[in-house]
């Protein structure tokens, strides 16, 4: 590849200091873009995580009242591995998140609290990948991804959710981009190689969840999955392993 092909992925912008990642469940970021987060925090950038749920409905063999606190602990541990200290939970119900004003308000409030220049979320479209037979996405991912895109604008308008101002959350119109991970139509990427080992360690923190998915050795499962995931777009990124994003400007 020459780096000039129209199908090549462009390097993600680097002229920012604060990012906020907003996803539905514990492990969503670890399956998607933790290698990019590791690279960003290494560069001195600030990244915070906001999760709509605690993932309490995610493990068939563990009841929600026990599962939620367990998955919260795993998420905080996994975030710390890639240099993220701030992890917040919005306490929407796992599996039945509803797109609507309440979700938009909660995410807009988080954006106003953290004042990011870059907002990150997960694939908000109906399927994973394009074309016939693509796996169906979950309603939670669709709702949170769509609401995050909308809330990035809501956060800057004082007349949308004016009650947030009463809570001391002044409008924040400083979001410059929203980056969607796991999109079937990515436009930009981050080199995954420097942060890949930490991304593997970060996903391994979700041992309870992984144990419910596979009988394979957890480390082998995680390494195989993330190596394949970051190789998928490498031919469009100069042969480098990549965390790919669809980047929307604001």
Question: How would you portray this structure in words?
Answer:
- By secondary structure, this protein is of the alpha/beta class.
- The chain contains 9 helices and 8 strands.
- α4 packs across α5 and α7 crosses α9 (about 220-230).
- It starts with 9 loop residues before the first strand and ends with a strand.
**Percent range of helical residues:** 25-40%
Question: Which consecutive residue ranges, at least 5 long each, have pLDDT under 50?
Answer: none
Count the E strands: 8
Radius of gyration: 17 Å
Question: Overall 3D geometry?
Answer: globular
Largest sheet: 8 strands, mixed
Topology as a string of helices (H) and strands (E): EEHHEHEHEHHEEHHHE
Write down the overall mean pLDDT: 95
Give the strand line-up of the largest sheet: 1-7-8-6-5-2-3-4
Structural class: alpha/beta
| Strand portion | 15-25%
Can you count the helices? 9
Distance between the termini: 30 Å
Quick recap:
The chain is an alpha/beta fold. The chain has helices at 28-32, 34-42, 64-81, 101-114, 139-154, 163-166, 196-204, 207-211, 218-231, and strands at 10-11, 18-23, 46-51, 87-89, 118-122, 177-181, 188-191, 242-249.
């Amino acid at each position: 590849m020459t780096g000039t092909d129209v199908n090549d992925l462009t390097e993600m912008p680097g002229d920012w200091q604060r990012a906020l990642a907003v996803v539905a469940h514990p492990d969503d970021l670890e399956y998607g873009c933790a290698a990019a987060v590791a690279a960003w925090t290494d560069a001195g950038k600030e990244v915070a995580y906001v999760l709509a749920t605690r993932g309490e409905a995610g493990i068939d063999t563990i009841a929600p009242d026990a599962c939620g606190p367990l998955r919260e602990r795993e998420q905080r541990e996994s975030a710390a591995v890639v240099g993220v200290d701030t992890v917040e939970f919005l306490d929407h119900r796992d599996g039945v998140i509803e797109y609507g004003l309440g979700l938009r308000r909660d995410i807009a409030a988080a954006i106003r609290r953290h004042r990011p220049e870059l907002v990150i979320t997960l694939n908000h479209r109906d399927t994973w990948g394009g074309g016939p037979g693509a796996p169906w996405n979950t309603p939670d991912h669709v709702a949170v991804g769509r609401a995050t895109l909308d809330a990035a604008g809501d956060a800057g308008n004082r007349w949308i959710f004016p009650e947030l101002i009463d809570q001391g959350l002044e409008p924040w119109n400083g979001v410059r981009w929203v980056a969607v991970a796991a999109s079937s139509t990515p436009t930009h990427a981050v080199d995954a190689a420097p942060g890949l080992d930490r991304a593997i360690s970060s996903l391994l923190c979700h041992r309870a969840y992984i144990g419910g998915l596979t009988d394979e050795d957890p480390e082998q499962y995680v390494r195989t999955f993330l190596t394949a995931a970051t190789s998928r777009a490498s031919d469009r990124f100069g042969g480098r392993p990549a965390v790919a994003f669809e980047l929307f400007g604001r």
